[in-house]
């Protein structure tokens, strides 16, 4: 066990927990990677954890959800699907969670929200023909290969990437359809979305190139390799792996409460009971003081402009989330308590995730460079073909920068215009890089067409843009 001042080692990580040790031993018995199996297990733990079980606000913001996105790294045939299968054996019951592949950003809201017709009396009293209700409070997206996800995200006007970002953060999902009777919206704390995808190094750029929006930073990256796998297959570990999902089931809100949340649209808008209590109480996990100190230090560094940026900017929030899920995995008597060992284990796992991610991205770049060198050596890039390739690359670059703008605008508006009064086009332009600015107008047009954003009139008649929805 690691001391309070020393980080946990890999050996301590696996041996300091009976649950993790069983996962490691069972993975090696089934000839799969312990790292990949654990990642898939944590995604399943996150899925069965009710949406009202959350991490603390820490800095005065809102409590954060425990959604988990996992990238399992390996080449074709390395065992990405096998790791998911082993995790399914360890935690077979997902409490009726929806399991599917994402088709579009708009479609994700339909996993959680639906509309049902009202009776004639209710239609008259509510002045509407249908009401929102919760179809399901949990879903696990399984994408065998990141290329499938990348193809969907790369379609012009696709909202899948910003919706995945919102789903990881637990923000409201769904558009603001003009016809209220067709509007589908899953409110914060009313759903739990998790995701598992396979990533071949050659396709790592599909995630890595989206670091501007923060998508790859939100994933826990796990490796299909196990350098310490024994030459001879070990026996099946003794005993049984126990994870009682019913202990989490009792914490989830009732269907009546969930439907009331969906109708209200937010906890703050739900009518309070006569006793003045919380109409939708949250179960907030308890973290050790060291976590609060780490968050406070991170905020000070941010205020001083000294916090690390790039792909490690979200590592602290990911570590907080992993610590909560590791604690839930332990199934202790005090289910919602995160110990110092849980925190140190999460720190080790996130460090390992960052190393796995960087190796994957570096290998992907080497593969790309090698392919380009082979094309040149084979004479494929002759002068005539070179012009065609150059034109194709210019068009690819145009599409890439346009998509960057399409992805960036909703994220910027979410962070900088919470009241949805609108942001002038000039401010949006000034916050883009010079290379991306020429594509702003086309990106705005795409987002207006897909109703992700709305155009509003400014005080002096100028145009402003805000996320779709009521002001």
TrEMBL record:
Keywords: ATP-binding, Helicase, Hydrolase, Nucleotide-binding. GO terms for molecular function: helicase activity. It comes from the Bacteria. This is DnaB domain-containing protein helicase domain-containing protein.
